[in-house]
Amino acid sequence: MLVMVRPMYRTRFIRKVFRRTPGGRTVIHFERRKKSPMRCGRCGAILSGVPVDERDRKRLPRTSKRPQRMFGGVLCPRCLAEVIKSMVRGKLGV
Ligand SMILES: [Zn+2]
Question: Where are the domains of the chain?
């Protein structure tokens, strides 16, 4: 059955779920897709300290959105340590 849905539901961010009602009808429910967690830009590890929910990312203060260090919310701590070490090594010419 083809149904013209409200414009707000005509987006790929919203998932169609077919549910069987007690009366035997099949109805379409619209659900938001789950957001994927933020990942490290270098190794792809899941970043902790960064909210997964998009609304939390918008609503929270800036200091609650990612760790308060350089490349916080971009690189994982292990990659950051490696990057810093490589930068220091480059400066010293070792
Ligand atoms: Zn990493």
Answer: 1-33, 35-94
Q: H-helix or E-strand containing 77?
A: helix 77-92
SS (H, E, C) 33-56: CCCCCCECCCCCCECCCCCCCHHH
The neighbourhood of ligand 1, an ion, using CB within 5 A, equals 40, 42-43, 45, 76, 79
Q: Ligand 1 center to residue 30 CA distance, Å?
A: 35
Q: What percent of the chain has pLDDT over 90?
A: 49
39 close to 46: Cβ distance less than 8 angstroms: yes
Give me the pLDDT at residue 82, please.
94
CA of 21 to the centre of ligand 1 (A): 46
CA angle 75, 47, 11 (to 5 degrees): 110
Q: pTM value?
A: 0.62
